[in-house]
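Q: Could you write out the predicted structure for this multi-component system? I'm mainly interested in how the pieces pack against one another.
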Amino acid sequence: MTSSAPFPDSATTPERSPLATSRPADGLQQSERLIILERGRADRNYWLDLWHYRELFAILAWRDISVRYKQTVIGVTWAFLRPFLTMIVFTVIFGSLAKLPSDGAVPYPVLVFAGMLPWFLFSSILSEASGSLVGNAQLISKVYFPRLIVPAASGVVALVDFAINVVILFLIMAWFAFVPNWQIVFLPVFIVLAVLASLGPALLITSLNVKYRDFRYVIPFVVQFGLYVSPVGFSSAVVPESWRFWYSLNPVVGVIDGFRWCLLGGESQLYVPGFMASLVVVAAMLWLGIRHFRKTEKTFADLI
Amino acid sequence: MSDVVIRASNLGKVYLIGHESQRESYTALRDVIGRSTRNFLRSAGDLMRGRQLIVGDEVEEFWALKDVSFEIKRGEVVGVIGRNGAGKSTLLKILSRITEPSAGRVEILGRVASLLEVGTGFHPELTGRENIYLNGAILGMARSEIRRKFDEIVAFAEVEKFLDTPVKRYSSGMYVRLAFAVAAHLEPEILVVDEVLAVGDVAFQKKCLGKMQDVASHGRTVLFVSHNASAIQRMCSKCLLLASGKVAAYDATGSVLRQYAEADDRVSSYRGQVPKNAVAATIAADVQVEEVRGTGGRIRLKLRVVARREVRVGCNIRIKTAAGEAVGWASTNQLDQRNEVDILVGETEFDVTVDTSALCGGAYSVSLDLVRPGIEYLHRAEDCLVFEIRRSADSLEMRVPELSWGNGAAFFPCETRIARVSDKATRKIA
C-alpha cells in the first residue's frame, strides 16, 4: 500500500455521518457506539477502548500464568531456581574469583540478587512479550480486540515470577542480617520503571516480528548479551567515572541502579546524571514502541 | 425499527501477492546464487523501507473486495453467499475489525460480535470451566455475563461431568459443543457468523440453527456467511451475493439464490506455458461437471498437451477439497502400462472423464501431473482447476451430503438388507 492511493484519508472525511444523526435518542441507543472503519483511520478512542477490554487483559494474563507451570514436575520452583543459581554463579565469579568490590558493606550475594531482580523482570517481559503476537496468531486472525493487550498480558507472568523473587531477596537479606533503609518505599516506582523500560523495546520487536520473523532470533541474543553488559553481577560503581554517563544510556543500568539504591539503602549511591539519561532513553523507547505498534497493529491479521 | 446499523460504501481490500516468475529455469549454480543474492538484497531493502516481505519476484495487487456497498437495517438477518474466493471471509474480517479496509468505509452502530470460528482461543491445558471464561471474554462477554449464563452454557453443551477436565482430553464432539455453546450465548446487537454451523452431528446442528433463529427474533442484526444455500434459505430474509470481490446481487433471499444457482454453469479453465527445457507440458485444461441426479456426477477434462519430442505419457488427476485436503486421484493410464499413450511432437488433445459419483457437494480443486509413467514428472500444475459438485436430491425425502458437514469428501453408495430379526422385535412392531 502506498501513500499515493487515491482514497480519501480520515483527515478529509467529515466526522458526523448521516447514520449518526438518524440515531434515535432513547436510553437504549445511548449506549451504542458508532464505529467507523476506514483505511488509515486513527482510532481516537484508542485508550478508552483498551479500558473497555480490561477483563480480556486480566483473563489472558491469568491464562498465561495458569498454563505456565501445568504439567511441570517442580512447578513454581522454576521461578526461584533460575535467579538463585545465577546468583550463586555470579557471586563466585565476580565476587570471589574476580574480587570486584561490593557497594559499601553490602554482602556480595545481596548485591547480585538486588541487581538480578530488575534484570530478570526486564528480560522476561522482553522475551515473553516479543513472541506474544506470533504466539497468539490464531486469536489475532479471528477476533478483534486492542492488540496491545496481548504483549501486556504476557508481561504479567513476569511480574508474578518477580514477586516470588522479591520474597527470596528478603530471605537472603534476613540470612545475612541485612536491614534495608527507608528508601525501600520507592521500590514500586522502580518496578514501574523496569516494566516501562522493557515494554518499549518489547512492543517494537513484537510488532516487527509479525512482519519479519528474523526478530525472534534477536531477543535471546539481546537477553544473553545484556546480562553481561548490564551491572547485574557487579556494581555499576566499578565502571570508570569518565565512562559512566555513556554506560547509563543502557536503560537497564538506570533501573538496576535504582533498585540497588532503594533496596540496599545508603550503601549504594545513585549516579544522578546517568539515571536521568536512562530515564530519557526509557521514555524514548516507550514512545517509539507504542507508536510503531499502533501504526502497524491494523495489518497484523493480514500478515501473521 | 428501520434504521440502518451497517452501512458499507465502496469498500475495498487489496492484498499483495508474489509469484515466482516462470520464464527461466534455474539449473546452473551461478543462476541460483545470482537469484538468491537478488532476493536477499530486495528483502533487505523492503525491510529498510518497512514493506511487507513477499516471496517470488513478481508482485501483483489482488483486490479481494472492490467497490462493495450495502446497507443493513436493524433486526435483519442477511445471508452472504458466494464461491470460494469471492471475498466473503474478507468482508467478514473487515466488519469484525480484524483487518482494516484498503478503500472505502463502513459505519457500524452497536456492539459487534463475530464468530469466524468456534473455540477461538481455547487452551488445551485449561479445564472446560476455565475455557468457558476464557472464550467468553475473547468473544466480548463480561465476566458477570458469563457467570450469569454459566449453567445454561454447560447444559447446552452437555458436558457437566467433564467441567474440570482439561479440554485436551475431550472428544472432538464435546470440544465443539462446548465451543459453540459459549458462542451461542453471546448477546451482541450485531452478530457476524461464518460457517461455524457446519460442526457436530445433525442433531446438534439443528440446535444451533434454532439458537441462531432465536437471536434473530430478538431484534438483533445477524450477518450469516455460508455457501450452504439451504441454511441461508432457512435463516435469512435478505441475501448478498458476492462474485470475485464485487456485489453481484443484494435482494430477497429467494431471487438471489436463484441467481447464484444459475451463474454456476461456468467452465473452469487453465492456461499454462511450456517451461524451457521441458519435454512435454500441459498447456491448457478445462473442467466441466456433469450432473447425475442423486450422485456426485462426473467431471470431464479437456487437456491439451504439447511435446517437444515424441514421448510416452500419462496424466494423473489429483482432486483436493477447497481446504487443500487430498481426496483422491485418477490416472489416465489406470496404472497399467498397456494404457500408456505415445504422443507426437506438437499438440495433442485428450478428453478425460472421471467418475466422481461418491463426492459430497462442495468445492474441489484439480492438480494435474503429466508423467512418464513410473519414470518422471514432465510437468506439474498444482490446483490449476476448480470445480464444484452440487448434488441434487432424487426425491423429497432425501438429503444431499455436503463436504461442509465435516464427515469427509466421499459419500459411498451402500446397500443394506435385514439379515435376522428376533421374535421380540417382531412382536413389538406388531
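A: Regarding packing and overall arrangement: The first strand of chain A starts at residue 34 and ends at 38.
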